[in-house]
Amino acid sequence: MNYIQKQLKKLESLECDEHLTDLYCLLSFVVGKDCTWEDVHDAWAIWENRQNPNHKSLIPFEDLSDDIQKLDADYARAIQNTTNT
To answer: Could you give the number of structural domains in the chain?
Structure first.
C-alpha cells in the first residue's frame, strides 16, 4: 500500500464520494493539522461545482450561515486527525 492509499484509508470514515475524498486527502497533506472549516468548504465547493454548479452553498465560506459552516467541522477534524505527528 502506497502513502496515498494509506492516507485515503484514514479518511474512509467520512463516507464521501471518492473524488471529494481525494481533495480532502490533499488537504491532509498540504494543510494537515491546520485544516480549517473554510478549507473543507473550498474543497467541497470545487467538487460540487462539477456536480451542481448552481448549488446554493457555492458561495464564499464567510457568506454561509453559521449552521451551514458547522457542517464542515467533522470533516476538518477528520483531516486534522489523519496528520502524522
So the answer is: 1
If you write DSSP's letter for every residue of 17-60 in order, what string do you get?
Answer: -HHHHHHHHHHHHHTGGG--HHHHHHHHHHHHHHH-TT-TT-S-
How far apart, in whole angstroms, are the C-alpha atoms of residue 6 and residue 49? 27
Q: What is the pLDDT of residues 17-41, one digit of tens each?
A: 999 999 999 999 999 999 999 999 9
Give the residue numbers spanning the domain of 53. Answer: 3-82
Distance between CA atoms of 66 and 85, rounded to whole angstroms? 31
Helix or strand holding residue 14 (H, E): none
